[in-house]
Amino acid sequence: MSPVRRCSRTACGRPAVATLTYVYADSTAVLGPLATYAEPHCYDLCAEHGERLTAPRGWEVVRLSDPSAPTRPSGDDLEALANAVREAARPQDRGPGTPGRGPRAADPVEVARRGHLRVLRSPDS
């Protein structure tokens, strides 16, 4: 017997990475990290079948993340990264007598906002 558990889907021989269980009382399908041991009423799924999982109409799918697995960046992470890149790209206004940056007169001005997007006007225009 192989120590690697395989996907429970018919004709799929890929290694399992997630375990699917059903909570019939709550009409919920729970897809979480691979269980430590196989149980008779749980289904082990490979990555592809876990991503494509759908539940019957009226049911809810709850996807529990594995804390040890790498997470995908969220919108907040991407916005923080963009802000850090913008900050690093700004020219430094440091003279011999000024230890830090003071307010800059050439900063863009926000003129509109829609959701998380901002419309900026150049101070030159």
Written description of the protein model:
- This protein has 125 residues and is α+β, with helices and mostly antiparallel strands.
- The chain is built from two helices and six strands; from the N terminus they run βββαβαββ.
- The protein has a four-stranded mixed β-sheet with strand order 3-1-2-4. The chain has a two-stranded antiparallel sheet with strand order 5-6.
- It is elongated, with a radius of gyration of 25 Å.
- It starts with 17 loop residues before the first strand and ends with a strand.
Record the SSE blueprint.
Layout: E1 18-23, E2 28-33, E3 43-45, H1 47-51, E4 60-63, H2 75-89, E5 109-114, E6 117-121
Structural class: alpha+beta
Total number of strands? 6
SS element count, helices: 2
Shape: elongated
Oligomeric organization of the protein chains: single chain
Q: Whole-number average pLDDT?
A: 80
Strand ordering within the main sheet? 3-1-2-4
| Main β-sheet description | 4 strands, mixed
Instruction: Tell me roughly what share of residues is in helical segments.
Output: 10-25%
Which regions contain 5 or more consecutive residues with pLDDT less than 50?
none
Order of SSEs, N→C?
EEEHEHEE
Head-to-tail CA distance between termini: 73 Å
Radius of gyration: 25 Å
Strand content: 15-25%
